Amino acid sequence: MKIEILTIFPDFFRGPLDYGIVRRAREAGLAEIEVHDLRAFAHDRHRTVDDRPFGGGEGMVLKPEPIFECIEALQLAPREQRPSAKQSVILLSAQGRRFDQGVAAELAALEQIVLICGRYEGVDERVAEHLADLELSIGDYVLSGGELGAAVIVDTVTRLIPGAVGNEASTRQESFTTPVAVPAGDGPSSTCESGGLLDYPHYTRPADFRGMAVPEVLISGNHEEIRRWRRGTALRKTLRNRPDLLDRVALNDEDRQLLARITGEDI
Ligand code: SAM
Questions:
Q1: Cβ(139) to ligand 1 under 6 A?
Q2: Are residues 99 and 202 in the same domain?
Q3: Domain match, 136 and 229 both
Q4: Among residues 9, 88, 104, 261, which one has the fewest Cβ atoms lying within 10 Å of its Cβ?
């Protein structure tokens, strides 16, 4: 997958793209990430990329010309053919569709994504109207710029590229992840997919840390009991922290029984 990032602060990405899974995916050639400096597409002596807003008001607005020219230099398919070319031009914006694990999975299936980072009061609206395929927000809050959002999207999408995470089963078991067909015999039977819930709790050695013992079932060696405990604790945590998710996931009979037991208790 190719990921292009358009920004007026290219140095911002020196850190976020150089660690862990993203770095390994780049080194393995699974993700090719290129950062483009929008100032390189400004033509005046001061390499101006912003201007005052028409109609008056606070702050500055990113000009359309450098953004259009940078996208043109990438030689993407024409806008209407981008879905079939598996390309998408995305404008980071607080006004966009909310980015989540489902959107990340959609993007991970593409061949090329372009992330346009806004700054100041935002980006000239003609970019959203005539150039971008999608506006994405990483949450209901306002950042100073799209760079942090782009880094979040790159990280989330990259770990979904097949081969990027050593054990692929682990990405299927994570929070928010909706089920996909699982190859037979894949993974120990004590694990369970989140199925769109939050993940179950994880523990490692020591078994007793300052008097805080790990749940006994996890050292019992009984895979079926461990799987049931994990499902129950995932349901409990989801009910406590994100009850909205329970309306969106398909619960089976076992889930309903576990939930009935949990809600009978104090959560
Ligand atoms: N005036 C804009 C508004 O009220 O929606 C906020 C502009 S913000 C200060 C500057 C840039 O940060 C935006 O153009 C966008 O690229 C980025 N940004 C801010 N919040 C974001 C969010 N929640 N998700 C993604 N990008 C965001």
A1: yes
A2: no
A3: no
A4: 261
